[in-house]
């Protein structure tokens, strides 16, 4: 019996699985863990906004306009974070604004990532005129400041939530195209790609089944950072009146409608601004953690 116990203790432990190894590397970055917790709370609030918000985001209480937060003198416990200039509950609008902002960020990432992966792989595996046309078009987009380009696109097709997503998708598309093309050009020279060609695999299979999975690490990191940038761009367009239109509780539009009350009712401006700050910071922290976990060379000491 003692010999069996000794043999069991001497037996090598099974190596951790890929998910466990990834989470171990990710958790080494404590700031990334904090960002993940905050982001998880924001996602929870966005999903269950209908149940968590005390009021409708567009419901007006005309007798309670510009009520300060409940802990400030003159506040009302019925409106924990106060009300805006026309009596709408700020907490409810911030909760529904989280859903709207995260929806914009995720929509932009999914659209730009899918189109960017396809165009990037085509540019990598079709080195003739298709690659030249795609990359020169991306260079033209990158030559224009991102916010200015988004403003021009929205001004042409009209201000709305859908058009905001389209404009920001176009702005961030070149980053995915260039990233995927560079990664695919590096991977296509590997021995496993040559072996796949010798084995009779077609070009499409090599592109999407052989090369693409080995290019996903930098794409995932770029996607995490694009979400925060897309939220900022959408807020900027909303502030300029070119994004989601009132009475939509989009944080940028809330800032725009409240800027004239900066001195008389500062909470109307401060609260959506803090919401944008916290959300973008949390996503950026998670992006840093993903970078460290997926690329050991970038891992902090």
UniProtKB/TrEMBL annotation:
Coiled coil: none annotated. GO terms for cellular component: plasma membrane. Pfam families: BPD_transp_1, OppC_N. One of its GO terms (molecular function) is dipeptide transmembrane transporter activity. The chain crosses the membrane at residues 31-53, 100-126, 146-173, 215-244, 264-290. It comes from the Bacteria. GO terms for biological process: protein transport. Residues 98-287 form the ABC transmembrane type-1 domain. It is a multi-pass membrane protein. This is ABC transporter permease subunit. The lineage of its organism: Bacteria, Pseudomonadati, Pseudomonadota, Alphaproteobacteria, Hyphomicrobiales.
């Amino acid at each position: 019996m003692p010999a069996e116990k000794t043999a069991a203790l001497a037996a090598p432990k099974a190596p951790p699985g890929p998910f466990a190894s990834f989470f171990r590397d990710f958790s080494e970055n404590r700031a990334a863990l904090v960002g993940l917790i905050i982001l998880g709370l924001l996602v929870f609030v966005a999903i269950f906004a209908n149940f968590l918000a005390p009021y409708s985001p567009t419901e007006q209480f005309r007798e309670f306009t510009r009520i300060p937060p409940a802990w400030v003198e003159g506040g009302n416990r019925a409106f924990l974070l106060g009300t805006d200039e026309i009596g709408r509950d700020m907490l409810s609008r911030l909760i529904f604004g989280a859903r709207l902002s995260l929806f914009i960020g995720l929509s932009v990432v999914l659209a730009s990532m899918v189109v960017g992966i396809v165009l990037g792989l085509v540019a990598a595996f079709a080195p003739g005129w298709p690659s030249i046309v795609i990359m020169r078009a991306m260079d033209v987009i990158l030559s224009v400041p991102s916010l200015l380009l988004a403003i021009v696109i929205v001004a042409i097709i009209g201000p709305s939530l859908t058009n905001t997503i389209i404009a920001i998708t176009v702005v961030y598309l070149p980053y995915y195209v260039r990233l995927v093309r560079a990664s695919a050009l590096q991977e296509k020279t590997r021995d496993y790609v040559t072996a796949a060609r010798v084995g009779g695999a077609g070009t499409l299979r090599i592109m999407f089944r052989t090369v693409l999975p080995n290019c996903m690490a930098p794409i995932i990191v770029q996607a995490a950072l694009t979400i925060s940038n897309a939220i900022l761009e959408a807020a900027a367009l909303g502030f300029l009146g070119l994004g989601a239109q009132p009475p939509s509780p989009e944080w940028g539009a809330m800032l725009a409608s409240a800027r004239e009350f900066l001195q008389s009712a500062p909470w109307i401006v401060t609260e959506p601004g803090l919401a944008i700050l916290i959300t973008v910071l949390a996503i950026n922290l998670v992006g840093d953690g993903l970078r460290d976990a997926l690329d050991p060379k970038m891992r902090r000491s």
